[in-house]
Every structure is written in C-alpha cells, then in structure tokens.
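Minutes, project huddle
Topic: does the predicted pose make sense with iron/sulfur cluster bound?
PN asked that the exact inputs be recorded in the minutes so nobody has to dig through chat later. Recorded below.
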Amino acid sequence: MLGLYVHVPFCGKICDYCDFSAIKVPNYFHLEYLDLVNCEIAHFTDTHPGVLNRVDTLYVGGGTPSLLLPEEISCLYEILGSAGVPLRTLRESTMEFNPESCDAERLAVARECGVDRVSIGIQTFDGALLNRIGRSHDAGTGEAALELLTGVSGLRVSADLMFNLPGQTLDNFLGDLRHLSDYPLGHISFYGLKVDPHTRLGYRIAQGKESVDEDLYAPMYRQGVELLAGRGFDRYETSNFAKRGDESLHNLNYWRRGEYLAFGPGAHGFFGGVRYHTPEKYAPWRNYVKSGFPQDMLMLDPIGKDEALAELVQLSFRTREGLDLAELHEMGREIPEKVVLKWVEKGLLERAGNRLSLVGDGWLFMDRVVEDVFLALIPYSNLE
Ligand code: SF4
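Predicted holo structure (tokens), as shared on screen:
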C-alpha cells in the first residue's frame, strides 16, 4: 500500500504546547504555499513518473488544513489530482479540521474533492482547560463542529482528545471521553500531553507556574481504554480506537512499515527503503523548493537491516496485531524464549500463534518491553 501525506503548516493561533511544524501568518501566504507545494509535487512527478498514480490513501494534515479558504482547499486537491493522485478511487482520503474553521462550505468543498474521512482536534470540552493550553476554540465550537461533521452522510469522522493536561482531573477526562463517544463517531484517538521544554507551556512548567500530575497518566489511560471498550471502540493502536472496520487505513500503513510519500514543510516520508523529511520550518522549506530541491536540504535516513528490525519491533508493539514472529524469523532473528516468558509471566505480553502482543498494563510499559526485545535481537556490537 502507498500513502501520501501533505502538510499544511498554517494555524490561526499557535497552541501553548505545540511542537509541530506550524506557523501563524497572514492568509496571503496560502497562495504562496500552494505554488510551492505544486512545484514540489511537479518535481516529484518529473523524477518519479507514475508513482502518484499508485497512491492508495491520502492524508492532508497540519497545522490546520481547514484554515485554507474553500477555493484554496479546492486548489490543493486540484494540484494533487492533476499530478496523478487518483482522488476518486483512493481507499481513504482524510483531511484534518480544527473546530474554529469547520464550516459547511469548507466541508462541502472537501467532499467534492473526494475527502471521505475527517479528523478533528477537540482535545477537551472543558473551556478553562482549552484556555490553559492555548487552544483557539471554545467548548461550544468543538460541539458545533462535531454536530456538523456527524450529520454528513457517508463521512467517516475521527476526533482527538488529550489527557493529563495541567489541572485536569481523572473525572474531567473521563467526562470528556463519555461526551465525545456519545456522538456517532467511528474513531477516537486520545493522547497524553507531552511537554516540550521549548514550548510556551514547557516554559511555564519550567518556571513552576504550571504543572502536570504524572501520577494521573496511568489511571487516565487505563480507565479511558476501558470506557471506550464498553462503548464499542476497540484499541487497535496505543492511542487509537475504532468501531469495527473504522480503523485509519493511512495510519495502519505507517505502523505496518508501508511506504508513504510526503509533501509540505517538515513532512515525513518513507519510500524506496529511505526515511526522509523536508525542512521543518516554513522559510527553510520555501528555500528548499525555490533552490531547486537540493538533496542536502532533505533529511535522508536509509534504513538498514538492524534499523528495519528496530522499526518492526517498535511499530508492531504499538498495534493490536502485535509482532509477527514469522516475519522476524524471515529476517533471520528469534527472540530468546526467556525474554518472551519474562513479560508473559508478568501479564504484559501475550503469545497467540505467531503473534506477540501487549496486554493489560503492557500498553503502559511498551517502551520497556520494546527495549528489552530489541536488545535481545540485536548483538551489542551492532549498537556501538
Ligand atoms: S492546532 Fe495543532 S498544529 Fe496548530 S498550533 Fe495547535 S497543536 Fe500546533
């Protein structure tokens, strides 16, 4: 399967915790962005003719793609379609919306462009918390966006929440999840807040003006999973929950180490055995496009045998499917039985046929299991 990710870097306001490639600029930058992304895609089609015709899933993310005006959204998809992306026959076409720019007109344009799935960042329904993390929408705007999206026939809708926010209680988070799962959604994601010290929130925490109660992380995650399971949402990846058949095909391809192309500032791709990303920030990316795509401005990371193995272990354990031992065997590696048993006996890992997957609190200790399995597979000499 081949995925395509297009990054739209604009946001109306930069959230206090944001460490993504996002920029707040006047709207007239949108046209320049569309020109640049058009050049980037044209360069790719010149050097890789026919590849875009093979795209199966498209994900337009950000930033805030829905900040583009309706005619700009249409223009972006026109660029993709003219370059050969089969917009009408994709297996999945997702566009990210933010509540404050989620309106009927933009949605109608997106639908005309073949978008069949929308992912919306709600984060929380608590207005005070939204303020505290610097989001630009309020609780009512989030609810109105969900009403609008879930009323569109044939549209798959996914919504994101955050947990372990400063000042958030367990009851508050579970209340958010309950409220969100009352909407007729097929997919919910929830993510624990990760504080980057270089963000405004990180700075406030370092100054002691704000704090996060780390002890709440595990109970929030555990009880959140339980609540969603009771409402028909199955965890198919550590932070992603879907009703049967509503899993994100595009994201599953990432976790299965499938190939995906990427355009836009800071967009990450994996193609021909190489992981790559374009310059993170808007200005260096513009420079990269305007200077004729010099290779030395791209971050290129060819994936060798050991890196492939590390990725397989790390990405597989994130998913419900778990690690395929037959695939490991094909790569000439076996996990020593004592390593498997150690985690099985602790009740954190389960073996079913050829699959090894996390169970129970294993999901909370994923990093430790991954590290242990990985070190058992890779000779120490290769790690130096
Ligand atoms: S909406 Fe997302 S990308 Fe934009 S500033 Fe907020 S966290 Fe960053």
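Observations noted during the meeting:
- The CA atoms of residues 340 and 349 lie 8 Å apart.
- The chain has a mean pLDDT of 95.
No decisions taken; revisit at the next huddle.
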